[in-house]
Amino acid sequence: MRSSAIPLVLCFGCSAVFGAEAVFPPKAHPDVSGWQDLFAKDLSDAVYPKGVWSFQDGVLTATQDQGIWTQKEYDNFIIDLEFKTAPGTNSGVIVYCSDTKNWIPNSVEVQIADDYAEKWAKSPKTWQCAAIFGHLPASKSKVKKPGEWNRFTVTCKDKMIYVMLNGEQVTEMDMSKWTSAKKNPDGSEIPPWLSTPFAELATKGVIGLQGKHAGAPIYFRNVKIKVLK
User: Fold this and answer.
1) Is residue 8 within a helix (H) or strand (E), and if so which, with residue range?
2) How far is Cα 92 from Cα 171, in angstroms, rounded to an integer?
3) How far apart are the first and last CA of the chain?
4) What is the pLDDT of residues 110-141, one digit of tens each?
5) 30 burial class (0-12, 13-18, 19+ CB within 10 angstroms)?
6) CA distance 213 to 203
7) Which structural domains are found in the chain, ordered by start?
8) Confidence band, pLDDT 50/70/90 cuts, at residue 177
9) DSSP strand E in 114-179: where?
10) CB under 8 Å to 202, separation ≥6 — which residues?
11) What is the pLDDT of residue 25?
């Protein structure tokens, strides 16, 4: 009995050292103090139309409906960021993108939306905030009203995607279950412009943020990434 207690003590010590980040997927928004910025403050490591995206007092925003992309490709990772909507905002965090020129059918979009706006409130649940756009709704609406900062933690591990919004995990997807480009596993329709079954998408690609879509701005700050092994 005495010898078996030693590994238990050591295991408890490991849990205390690594904390929430040792749990997969994260059960709380992680401590990102040691994480890398997804984009440099001068955007020198980003791909985007010049003059569209900029940092202003630490806040990243766009003047047009144009995305901003990492130069580097990622496969297994956690993105943690804050975002703020305006009335009518529709944006997103784009992962596993293999073609930035034609990204819509060649990526996964974690939706950002002002769910308080009538247009989005009356849209399909898969178009609302924290959904996997067109494919899987969030389990509940947790987005704050326009003008308030929200926090997203998006975990991508192979074909598993987890979305935490404002302290609660609201979306979990196993991409391998999406074998059709027309119907979701629950029988609901997939928008026709999302023409690649998720089961066939590569789980490696660049990461992007959608710009000023639907005429309303979007604001990001503290956009961090941690690469997973």
Assistant:
1) helix 2-18
2) 14
3) 35
4) 999 999 999 999 999 999 999 999 999 999 99
5) buried
6) 25
7) 27-227 (2.60.120.560)
8) very high
9) 149-157, 160-165, 168-174
10) 96, 98
11) 85
